[in-house]
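Troubleshooting log. The previous structure file for this entry was overwritten by mistake, so regenerating from the original sequence record. Sequence copied from the archived sheet and checked twice against the printout by T.R.
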Amino acid sequence: MRHARRSVLVAGLIALVAWLGAPGGTTGQPTEADVFVAEGILAFEEKQYDQALAAFRRALAREADHIEALYWSGVALMAQDKPGEALPFLERARQKSPGEPSIAFQFGLAYFALNQYDRAQPLLEEVFAKEPTLDSLGYYVGFLRYRKQNYQGALGAFRAGRTTDARIGQLTRLYTGLSLAGLGLSAQAATEVEQALRLLPASPLTGPAERLRDTMVAATRRDRWFHADLRVGFYFDDNATARPNPHAEDSTVHDLRRPTWETSGELFSLRLAYDWLRASPWQGTASYSFFTTYNNEVPSFNIIDHLGSVGITRLGSVFELPYQAGAQYSFDYLVFDDKELVQRNSVSLFGLLVESAIHLTTAQARIEVKEYTETRPLANQEFQDAVNWLVGFLHVMRFSQDRHFVKAGYQYDLEDAQGRNFAYRGHRFLAGAQYTLPWWDIRSSYDFSLHYRDYQNRHSSQPAGRPGTIERDDHEQAHVFRADVPLPMNLTLSGDYQATISNSNIPVFSYKRNVFTLSLSWQY
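Regenerated output below.
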C-alpha cells in the first residue's frame, strides 16, 4: 500500500512539474528527468535531503539544463545550510529562467546567507516588487534597506511583508523598531520592540531586545511623567528701547530716547511639563513657563511672562510614512514695567510627517487673540487688540541621527487689528542649520527669519509732518547664532547672539538691536 501511495504521489508530482513547473512551468510530455525531480521533491518534503539531491543529480544527468532539477538542487543545499554549493545550481537556473520569482528569491537568499548583501539585494528587491507578501521576503528586503540607512524604505518592506516563521516575525518587529528609532521616533520604536518581546519571550534575542527597548524609552523622555528646565543668565542689549535709527527727515523719536538705550541685565526662566496622557497612539502634555528679565540701566523695560499650555498628539503612519498630529491651547500673560501689557489666547493645529531618515516636514495653523491693556485714551486707530491668523510649514533635512540639520520654511500671517494702524498681511521666511562639533558634542546653530509686513491702511500719525499719507511697510530680519556646551549633571552652558534689523518706509519704525547672552540651564 505504501509503495502504491508513493507511486500515486510521484505521478501527481510528475504532472505538476511537467505542466506547471515548480519555478516557471513547462509544457510537453513528462520525461525521465521529470520523474527523478518528482521523487526528489518527495524526499525533500520528508526532509531526506541527501536522497533528494541524489534524485536531482540523476535528473541532471539526463537533462543538464533541467530548470526544476537545478532549482530544487539549490533549495535542498540551502536546507542543508550549504549556500556556497547552492549558488552554481541557482545561477544556472536563473540563466535559463531569468524572470522566475522563486528562482530569484532562492538565489538572493543564498547570497544573503553568505553575507554578500550587495549581490542579494537586487535579486530580492526584484522579487519584492512582484510579490511583496511572499513568506519572509519583507524581512530580508527590510533588513538590507536598513543596513544602508534607508529607514523609510525598510519600514515599507517590514510592514508589507508576511511570515509564518515566529523567529522571522520577531526579527521583523525588532528591526521595525530600529528603523523607527533611525527616523527619530523613539516612542513608536519602543512599542515595536515591546511587541517583538511578546512574540517569543524565551528567544535568545529577548535580553538584547529588552536593553534596546529601555534605551529607546529613555531617549523618549528622561523622566516618565514630569519634566523641568531651569535657566539663569546674563545679557547685554545695545538697544533695549528699540531706539530708531538716525534719520535726517525725522529724528524726533531718536532724540527723545537718549541718552540711555544700552543695558546689561539678568534673566531667569523655568519650564515645568507633565505628561498627563501616555496611551499609545495618544500623548498629552501640560506645561507652564515663567520668564523674566531685569535691565540694570533701564528697569522700566523689565518684562515678566507667564505661559501655560495643554496639548494632545497622535502618532501613526499614512502610506507607510510615520506622522504626528495634534492640537494645543496656550495662554500667555505678559507684564511690562510691573504692569499688565497683553494677554494672548491661541489655539494651534499641527502635523509632522517623516518622509525618510533625512526629510521631515511640519505644518501649522494657528489663531491667536491678543488683548492689550490700554493705559491712556487713544484714537480708535491706535488700539492694538487683534486676532492673528497664521499658517505655515517647515522642512528639515537631518543628518547623522539629527546631530546636523538644515531647515527652511514659510509662514503667512494676517493681523486683524482693531486699530487701523496695526492691521497687516505678513510673509515670514525661515531658514537655519545646526552642526554638532566632534569636541564635547558642542551644538552650533544659526537661525534666520525675514518678516515682511504689509500694513493695510495709511498711518494716522506718521510720518512726522505729513501723517495719513503712507501705508507702513516693514521688513524685519532676525539672525540668531548659538552654541550649546553639554556639561555633567544635565547642565548646559549656552552662548548666543541675536541681531534684529528692522527697516521701514516710516523712519520711526526702523531700528537695529544686538543682544548677547550667556546662560546656564539644567534639565530634569
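The domain at 221-523 is CATH 2.40.160.40 (Porin). Archived copy saved in two places this time.
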